[in-house]
Amino acid sequence: MKPVIVAEKPSQAKAYAEAFKTTKRDGYIEVAPDAIFPEGAYITWGIGHLVELKEPKAYDPKWGKWSLAALPILPDTYQFQVARGKAQQFGIIKKLIFQTDTVINACDVDREGSNIFYSIYYQTGAKNKKIQRLWINSLEADEVRKGFQELRDNRQDLLLYQEAKARQISDWLVGMNGSRLYSLLLQEKGIREVFAIGRVQTPTVFLIYQREKEIEAFVPEPFYEIEGMFDAEKGRYKGKAKLRAKERKEAEELLAKYAIAAKEDGIVAQVKTTEKRTPPPQLHSLSTLQAAANRKWKYSPAKVLSVMQGLYEKKLVSYPRTDTQHVTPGEFSYLAGQVEKYQQLIEAPFPIASKTPKKRFVDSSKVQEHYAIIPTKTIPTARKLAGLAKDERNLYEEVLRTTLAMFHKDYRYAETKVTTDVKGLAFFTTGKTELEKGWRELFPVAKEAKQEPSLPELREQERVKSKIDIKESMTLPPKPYTEGQLIAMMKTCGKFVEDVEDTEILKEIEGLGTEATRSGIIETIKRHEYISVTKNIVSITDKGRILCQSIEGNLLSSPSMTAKWETYLKKIGKGEGSSEVFLATIGKFIQKLLDEVPAQMQKNGLPDKMATPDAKDEIAVCPRCKKGMIVSRRGSYNCTEYDNGCKQSFPATFLKKRLTAKQIEYLCTRGKTPVIKGFISKNGKKFNAKLVLEDGKLKMEF
After folding, report:
1. How far apart (Å, rounded) are the C-alpha atoms in residues 191 and 184?
2. Topo IA-type catalytic domain: which residues (predicted)?
3. What strands, in cross-sheet order, belong to the sheet with 4-7?
4. Helix (H) or strand (E) holding 484
5. Residues of 607-637 as b/e, b for ≥16 C-beta within 10 angstroms?
6. Which of 103-107, 321-325, 660-664 has the highest mean pLDDT?
């Protein structure tokens, strides 16, 4: 009998079919008999999640309406249904499966792929079929054929399915109960919004909220340093004394102690040069690629995953949903054999430093389900490369250049530390001189990138002229997250947890979500309007603030809860845990929410003004009319007496720099801000300045 191969989606089925001689049919592809399939085979496909959990009202009519009295929603058993609009394709799969005795799971090689396959298989009602698993990291024809020759049994696959199904049901339970609970309680306070609650998304929003609160609560403080500008025989350089004082007086007293005036002679007391090396970067996992792409091109994590999935299906890169940065000796071997061809692709020839595997890149113990993202054996033609969209080309080259760097030399530079003596007070300078570009030549630096100033040639005991000055600076608030940094924040959220045990758990499971789901979680909280992203900067919305104030002090706000759940879910995937035990724990958690949240929300005390969508926090008394308050409204800061004639306003963004409520408060109360970094002029140059309020208008002070 012909085996039935179930792919996750049509594009994946098409890629498998290209490894065989086939005939296209309605909803499936027929594989002609060959050495691997002597009787031939059928390849069919899902359309993502063909099968889904039923809605609450399917279990009990009382759950059809949102009511606090109807909670909790805890079915005795969980029922699934074919997703709306997908019945035709499901019927084709079901018919094929009933005609065979062997079914091959060829969905994506991860937990979600296992879940999609078994959800479909069990929904068909089929029994006593032999099930095998295709497990490959590349869609190239030879890798596909090799994978079908080396099919795995389904023991591990079944465990991954149990883990994924338990995760799916727990997310459904938390979402259905938590969303109704918080939405209904907030409606009682006059806030007519639906607040979606999620096992992973909610603590993620709370971490963003915490960062924004830190920024808003930050009060800039001045600090003082003593800086020297030195003129030597072969050039000028700068140095600093070892002092960072909160009061200017401390710096003045130190200069007085050494009787140092504004202009003095100095001596180069020591010049110490050390050669240093930076090895090539590690290969990319999905999260490191998402971070790099966001930094270089402002791509969102979701866009990176989407583009990489496309490149995978075009057989140009290996499986993208990977959390490792290593390959096995097998992958290294084919990469080493094709280095010269990869070099030609990007016209970047360089002498190969070594084709010997290094543990930094090649380590089988670090490769579990998938290896790092690397180019496949397929070398695209010039025409195929030219046919890639710009974002595809950018990401393909990033993967290619990072892989080639593995065969390049280290980046070498000389670090020079200079001590300059001015009347007994030491000034310190560190400079860097590039000796060999090495792997860095593979990554062209943008022209506007900040270059480190180079030191002039100096010799010990050389006399220099110096200009000594006390420099005033301001402490800077934490920076808001970029969209790319959210991925890293989710991975490393253990550092936000006080409990040592929880921190270790979060470190072990790599934080919130998984490599494959984090970008989707970010898209979800954007869709629910908890965060907004403007020019790559992430901000919490008013709706997000209300949610976070509501859950503050609750386990839903803490990554620890998700950490403990993820730890147990992984045990299920290893056969060491039980879905029944896990879901019973979730049930207890939901009951705890129902018991405690109403009183907790009362204790948190949401301000009444948050009940109206247009109300904003008052920042300061209006400096013009002295009656109204300056408040934040969409796109600007305005006076509440606007309708009575006061036209005082401040832009939310000035010269491409987002102004914070704290900076507006400084303008209103003191007439000027501390130094603000990062303004961008009309010609694109960055600069720093203070903002000054004169006659109701903003001016700059340098």
Report:
1. 9
2. 157-594
3. 22-24, 28-31, 41-45, 4-7, 102-106, 130-133, 152-153
4. helix 483-491
5. eeebeeeeebeebbebbbbeebbbbbeeeeb
6. 103-107
pLDDT confidence bin for 416, thresholds 50/70/90: very high
Write out pLDDT tens, residues 246-270: 999 999 999 999 999 999 999 999 9
Regarding pTM above 0.85, the answer is no
Residue with tokens 């020079």: 416
Adjacent-strand bridge partners of 57: none
User: Kind of pairing, strands 649-651 and 653-654?
Assistant: unpaired
Which residue(s) pair with 694 in the sheet?
697
Model confidence at 196, pLDDT cuts 50, 70, 90, reads: very high
Strands of 107-171, DSSP E:
130-133, 152-153
Q: Which residues contact 670 (CB under 8 A, 6 or more apart)?
A: none
In angstroms, the CA 105 to CA 7 distance is 7
DSSP output for 614-631: T---EEEE-TTTSSSEEE
Q: Three-class SS of residue 275?
A: strand
Token pair for 494: 């253990």
Instruction: Return the DSSP state at 444.
Output: P
Short-list 394, 439, 369, CA closest to 136: 369
* Between 564 and 483, residue with greater pLDDT: 483
**Cβ neighbours of 69 (radius 10 Å):** 7
**Cα 276-278-284 angle, rounded to 5 deg:** 170
10 Å Cβ neighbour count for 98? 12
Mean pLDDT of the region 139-153:
94
Does residue 604 contact residue 194 with C-beta atoms inside 8 Å?
A: no
Element (H, E) at 81: strand 80-82
pLDDT of residue 506: 47
